[in-house]
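The following block was generated as part of the benchmark described in Methods. Ligand: magnesium ion.
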Amino acid sequence: MIGAPIQGRSPARMAWDRIKKDRTAKISAITVAFIFLLALASPIFTWILHTTPDQFHPETLDPSFGTNPVGKLGGISAQHWFGVEPRTGRDVFLRFAYGARTSLSIALSATALATLIGVLVGLVSGFFGKTVDLVLTRTMEIILAFPSILFALAVTPVLENLLESWGVPTGNATRIPVMIVVLSMFGWPYIARIVRGQVISLREKEFVEAARSIGASRTHLVFKEILPNLWAPILVTVALNIPTMITSEAALTFLGAGVIDPTSDWGAMLLASVPFYSVDPMYTFIPGFGLFILVLAFNLLGDSVRDALDPRSSR
Amino acid sequence: MSQNSKVGNDSGEEIILSVSGLTKHFPGAKTSFFGKHEIVQAVDGVSFDVAAGESLGLVGESGCGKSTTGRLITRLLEPTAGTVVFDGQDISKLNNSELRPIRSDLQMIFQDPYASLNPRHTVGTIVSTPFKINKVVPEGGVKKRVQEILEIVGLNPEHYNRYPHEFSGGQRQRIGIARALALRPKLIVADEPVSALDVSIQAQIINLMKDLQKDFGLTFIFIAHDLAVVRHFAQRVAVMYLGNIVEIADRDTLYSSPKHPYTKALLSAVPEADPDAVGARERIRLTGDVPNPINPPSGCRFRTRCWKAQDICASSAPALLQIGQTQVACHFPE
Amino acid sequence: MSAFLEVKNLSVVFPTEDGRVQAVDSLSFSVEKGKTLGIVGESGSGKSVTSLSILGLQKGTRAEVTGEIWVDGTEIVSANEDEVRKLRGKSMAMIFQDALAALHPYYTVGHQIAEAYLVHNKVSKKQALARAVEMLDRVGIPEPHKRINDYPHQFSGGMRQRAMIAMALSCNPSLLIADEPTTALDVTVQAQILELLRDLQKEFGTAIILITHDLGVVAETADDILLMYAGKQIEYGTVRDVLQIPQHPYAWGLLTSIPRLTGDPNLPLTAIQGTPPSLISVPSGCAFNPRCNYVDQVGTLCASSVPDLLPIAQGQSHYVRCHMNPALRESIFTTQVRPHL
Amino acid sequence: MLKYTLRRIVSGTLVLGIVSAIVFSIFYILPADPARLACGKSCTPELVQRIQVALELDQPLAVQYGRFIKGIFVGRTYLANTDAARTCSAPCLGYSYQTDLPVRQLLMDRLPATLSIAVGASILWLLIGLSSGIISALRRGTWIDRTSQGFALAAASLQIYFVGLILQFIFVDKLAWLPMPGYSSPFEYPLDWAKQMVLPWVTLAFLLSAIYSRLTRSGMIETMGEDFVRTARAKGLSSRDVNIKHVLRAAMTPIVTVFGLDLGSLLGGAVITEYVFNIPGLGKLATEAVSNLDLPVVTGTVLFAAFFIITANIVVDLLYSVLDPKVRLT
Amino acid sequence: TASAATTFTTPVAPIKGAVKGGTVTILAQGDFEHLDPARNYVGGTLDFYRLFTRSLTQYRTVNGKTDLVPDVAADLGTTKDAGKTWVFKLRTNLKYEDGSKITCADMKYGVMRSYNDDILDGGPTYAKDFIDNPTNYKGPYTEPGKDLPTVICSPKGDSITFKLSVAIPYFPYVTTFGAFSPIPKAKDTKQNYELHPISSGPYKIKSYERGKQLVLVRNNQWDAKTDPLRWNYPDSYVVKMGADQNVIEQSLISDSGAAKTSVSFDTNIITNLSKVLNVAKYKSRLFNFDSAYNRYYAINVDTVKDINVRKAIQCAVDFKSILLAAGGTSAGSYANSTIPKSIKAAYRNFNVCGRDVSKHPEAQLDQAKAFLAKATNPKTTLRLAYRDRGVEPLRAAALEQSLKAAGFTVIMDKYPSSDFYAPAAKRGVPNEPDIIQTSWAFDWAAASGIVYALFDGRSMTADDAKSNQSRGNFPDLQALFAKADVSSTAAQEKLLGDIEQSLIVDKAAHVSVYFETSHYMAGSKVGGLQVDGGYSTLSVLGAYVKK
Ligand SMILES: Nc1ncnc2c1ncn2[C@@H]1O[C@H](COP(=O)(O)OP(=O)(O)OP(=O)(O)O)[C@@H](O)[C@H]1O
Ligand SMILES: Nc1ncnc2c1ncn2[C@@H]1O[C@H](COP(=O)(O)OP(=O)(O)OP(=O)(O)O)[C@@H](O)[C@H]1O
Ligand SMILES: [Mg+2]
Ligand SMILES: [Mg+2]
């Protein structure tokens, strides 16, 4: 809109102002923040509840059916706010809180790694074109041709063994890095494709020509001219990628290639709940609902970020 | 093409740019992943000279290779063949680092005032980038110099920290001009600098550029498809058709007695805002569109739309020859 | 006599988040069969909105349309969608600036023309396609029976515009609205298209509204000119009147600022200062006053009250919206403007 | 077009080759010994070694892979020229370490279940997704739109396993309207088949239709802003014709592509769905094989799935050229 | 029990209410490893093989009572030298499915070919292990002309004699295995024999598609009068293979379609147990019985040298939380001993860590700490080896908790599900486990089927503990084993019971935790199913389709 210029607002600032006005974004942000807080504060609850997420509580289970917590709704009580786990009597609330920690840190690290790789590859591939581009796009094509869940399942033990052979101790110390690598391995091509497309169109933009015409180096072109224009799409991609990563992490764990007991994780809690969903539905419901809310909040937030950064897309 | 003489202007001024046999063939759109490239003959053997301080207009229909020529001269593209001698140095084969010192003398103004400014940079950053890249520190510092330039192009120096989206099209084009001016270039290639602007704004920019040329002794290559606009800016005009120059002459000669049928047709097609002139003017209506540069017609490229075309036009390409004040490439000039 | 199209006091407002956009403000004009009205104005002055309102295409959107639009005896603003739909294509048709975007990429040109014909005529598909061939032939596309099977992207720019025209004219509409039909085209092709429009008008007696920002195009094609600025009509009259004795300072500015093929090229162009206003906050009074060189001649009135659209003299059909009195205008025009033309 | 198709098939085969090589080498560096797995309860080192020979695990990786590829195209003979020779005709994917059955047969046995899920669910999600997306787009901004899109976003944020378990709890355990999900042959027990498939279909369709609904809606809305839609209206077409013939037609193209790819990856095994509902499909086969380190089956399933994905890609590209005349394939 | 007094040669009584006809479907997770009698070794399916394979002796279960009965044999074998030489009388009126007679030579050939276990891999090796082999016989495929002189048919072919290398008092139990089945030499197709074993039982193989299904139909040549243990109600049995554990569980639970007439022999209801146990309509179709499986912890005496540390471990074991992790008392019953109570001759009702574990299953932490304090060579960091399968990690976690509470530090060492027993039995390797969480199911219902395998240190080598995971090789117990080797069955059982008690109570090298309870389910239209004491499984021998 041509006309009275608005006082010195950068595009980022305008997006931020738009987000601040968005009620959905606010509620989602609060929800996400709340879950983060729960994850961060989980040790405090250990102290309040005088137990740990790994502590067995055989007394809370029906002695003849280890699968049945004593009491209603999966054994919810003043001591066990979300009930207890069948078979072990471990406190579900603590496992939930600690699980949020694991799930979030894996998903976020994987997103970060995937974004880093994706952006770098996208930049290089889009900007330099030719053979480099051909090789990189082919690589992406091959990765995308992999049945990702299956392959992730298959490759996890392999990578784990590899790490172990380098002397990393068995268990979650290897499992978690492996998960992050595997998740980002299948995540980066999506980001790279978006970045590459953007770079290709930006590369042809006249302002890049203009910079070239004053003798700018490639580094300048990539990092000073093109990259600043990528923040918005990257941010949107990241925002929409986080929920996908959370889901994938949970799915991988659910299929058994995830973190190892006793470390808690939402996907692992769901997996553990499968045999009991009909006797103790609460145990399924709690991590499932948590996952749903978290993913929903991130999705809504991602939508808001996208709308704010790209005002043309309207709901 | 024009092998003979460097056509200078009569006054024998210093030739700052001399282009000869300039050719650019693009790999055309690939039709599939493995498909072969078609060859787009965007510019094919273009030669002309530009004297210091003059402004040369380059006109022609869409796709005839004007921008490509401009970008070859500023070495944003590497020519397939031919030479570009700028300030006594052949720059057609230089690599990026060798070009760097010349860049500040050779600047470009772009058509699209929206796409040519990085939306993430402030006006200050945009105009000061030339200084930073060429590591030039002007007297009084970069900021001061930039603000001076902003003032010169008619912008408020206080707009230093604003972003392009806060400006109108005309103002943005001024920013683009400021950037081109920053390092005091000798030659500016302006690629359709006003065609994206509103009529009421076009005149502002044309006037501004004219003033700048006068004040700083700039040399301009002014690309446009609008003959009337060129007439108001350039002292000499070259007409392009499908990658070739078909006619070059000084302004008055070209507009009053065009030699090439294409020039003639082009002139007669310009609508005039004068109801009396409408009936009075001779009308030449070309049929069809400009042919595809992937497969240009043999011989004279204009023959497919030319009402004068004979057999010879299909078999041999006419050279650019001097006829009176004009250089024209036609077997049957007017 | 009553004209084929009669627009009275048309106003269009878009309520947006940033404010109410007064895109068109009390516009009145008429077009008779066989005549051409040129609407001229800068980008954003409301030309396209006007044309869309005439076709009733703003029904069902957030646009608030008021006033009256009479097409062939039907009032469009108050009519319901179905009534207007029956008029569209048949009584009035439209061609758009960007023909590539305006044609559906997935259907053949022939199909799209035939479709337009089929809606309003009880004919078979075959007959409709035959009509499409006929129309393409009429607008000068070689080998039309082959080209009907082409998709829009296989046509060149000029051919697409011709196809659009063929589509618009397939049902012999009495009114054709051409919204910047040649802006995207080269001059040589533009000339072809304008000539085609003129020929067709002669043949079918169509009323044409030609929207453009190029006064040259209007001069060559139109009978009347409506000059718009910031949603308002500021000058309205025959081509000859408006171009030869323009009354509004904006018209003066436009005429003197466009480069021409005649006249002294060394004289600087007299540009209009400033930029067009935002339609959300149109300057009070005469919208042009911040850019007008002659505000001093009138005083505060320019900034405080909107001038009425008045005939330049009693009984004249040349209207202008300016606070300056006719004599003053006359003198300024002769002394300061005419020499630059 | 034919040339293009052939070329795509060749390059797709190449990609498959690379995928198989990767899968193959990854399992080769796995320290766990497949021979031990195939050996059984009374296993001795000699026996392990004999099995190693029988499975040709003693050969170098390149030789193993070469034989594997050969098996696919022309078949192969294990332990040729020995008493224990057995021939596996092309396309041979080897024998399962676990069950000693031809992998091809395992895949074919599991395919019907996966096919049942994929086809049924995709019909359902297309129906629901498209119709709700269309209605939303046409009634943009109304409560219908808001409700359906809110629902879609929520559904898209749900997990198959969570929804699957909840639905199973409600419809199987509490209400007992449906039998436990599973797979019965549709030819022998059509009714049981349908009843058992209902939950997998609904679950999968629930989540995916949400995505399609959003996709359809945004595609339609975007298209509605296109110039050619305005042209269609200017022609005097009825809004129904405009919406269906012009808007939907244009909005459909990307949806068809996405659908093709989704179906393709689903055909390779609806891993989670099969896992949750205990359906003996390809995905289930693969997860079992992975946990048993049954290399031939893992390679087979991954290749099979990759085959579907790549085929879907090719089909989608060809389809795209049919749907979008601008795309010219040579 | 191997007394010649009871003969059991008469046919078994009909099952009340059973009717003939119909098809019983058996749902199996996978194909049989082998159908060749010499190569069968998989617990749950051994019952099923009896439908078409007769062996020298067999188990018969009627009304919950299981006896060893002569099958192809006409008696339960006699020995005159306390078990070193065994003579079995043979029935002479038996026929194969093709009508040809079953001869003593066929019985001997069956034994002989089991020596070719290089080709016929997979089965138990008892015949080869126990029968004396002075000529180093290698099997009929390797040495075609050669004889096995220690298996002797009487001239009339009505009895068969086995000369063993040592006295094996329980040999008649061993002869239930498939190596002691008749095989006509002319029909032997070596490793392909399993594709169509010639039937000697009431059913014969009609079709067999590997991995898919096996169809059994009536064998008209079989005569019910000659058979002391088999019924033959359905017209056919169909084994459907390839379904998954949960698929089978759930289709049995849902009882729809073919599942109504179905039963499974390899699928214990595990996943859905708590659900079906709680619902009456499922309960009626559920068969709950003690399986042969005992879950126990072997304490490695090589690495945990101090007896007090071992005792501390014994006391620290929290039977309760371990069993809860496995499903509570419905999924298993606490056990002080790996010899089940049902093996009365050998079972000892001793206390573990001074308490009756069935009454006080909780960990005895104070005592554990006290023992640990007493240790002269305290080892407080323990490596616990367990398998990554089912609830085993959870059980290990339960043990970890109570060990920690008792003052130990625990290193959890998870082994892949597929590769556990052999690596865990490696001796003298780095990271050798201190506690091994493992289990045992007896091959026959006697202490000899347990104690020899689990506690006989004499079978160990320097680097392999074999199935003696606690690696005990105590001189006093060695002496007892030597004595048991040459004792009569009854005396041997008693001695073996003593050995186990000593190993658990005195040496503290073993903690038995519970016997798993099996929960098998059948479709609502299948009758005649009963728990077979011989194989501790749900037997389909008496199955019939309810009208
Ligand atoms: N990078 C490129 N790759 C391939 N073809 C190109 C490229 N750049 C230009 N062309 C082709 O070269 C021809 C000349 O293009 P150019 O941009 O120089 O024309 P122009 O005269 O500037 O036209 P316009 O008036 O539309 O700007 C056109 O056919 C164009 O499609
Ligand atoms: N749907 C809409 N919502 C809000 N504002 C609109 C809408 N359509 C048009 N406008 C505004 O109305 C004004 C007039 O627009 P219109 O398209 O008629 O201009 P125009 O004269 O045709 O310009 P151009 O020459 O650029 O085509 C512009 O300021 C535009 O931003
Ligand atoms: Mg250009
Ligand atoms: Mg417009």
